[in-house]
Specification:
By secondary structure, the protein is mostly beta strands. It has one helix and 13 strands. The strands form three sheets. Strands 3, 4, 5, 6, 7, 10 and 11 form a seven-stranded mixed sheet that branches.
């Protein structure tokens, strides 16, 4: 039996992929020479945010203007949902997520308020405020804090 994140049975034929693109307060080794961490609710969405494949501008799937692509900041981090349409690209995204071609979400952003902590063994870039530029469904995520690509349905756990 399959259940949605809410614990209810899924809508038959669900084609939604979702997951956290990043989690607040968790340092991640995004570059060889430094780590990065986002403060809670540090991302703003000043314009429609595109959804792309592997940050490729030539592979823009949709934007947040389309109700099929939803993003939100909550107490955990940046949550992403995409309802894959019955099109070639929708099928590719859904199958890529279910079969493991896509393993993570990734983002690009412009930092507005940041500081550096150089007291540890690696410099830490602390993002206090940033504008989200885009979200990508990716073969790997820059942030180790990404919580995979989930099909809307997941196996029920046995008690």
């Amino acid at each position: 039996m399959w259940l949605t994140e809410s614990g209810r049975p899924p809508t038959p034929g669900s084609r939604t992929v979702c997951g956290y693109a990043l989690r607040w307060g968790v340092p991640s080794p995004v570059r060889p020479d430094y780590d990065e961490v986002f403060r809670p609710r540090s991302l703003a969405f000043p314009r429609p945010v595109p959804l792309r494949i592997n940050h490729d501008k030539g592979q823009t799937i949709t934007t947040t203007e389309d109700k099929a692509f939803r993003i939100r900041c909550d107490e955990v981090g940046l949550w992403v949902e995409y309802d894959c349409p019955f099109t070639d690209i929708g099928d590719d995204v859904l199958q890529g997520a279910r079969l493991g071609r896509f393993k993570a979400w990734s983002i690009s952003f412009g930092a507005i308020d940041q500081r550096w902590d150089r007291t540890g063994h690696r410099p830490l870039r602390i993002i206090a405020k940033a504008n989200l530029g885009e979200v990508s469904i990716a073969d790997r995520g820059a942030h180790a804090t990404t919580i995979g690509i989930l099909s809307r349905m997941r196996p029920a756990t046995s008690n």
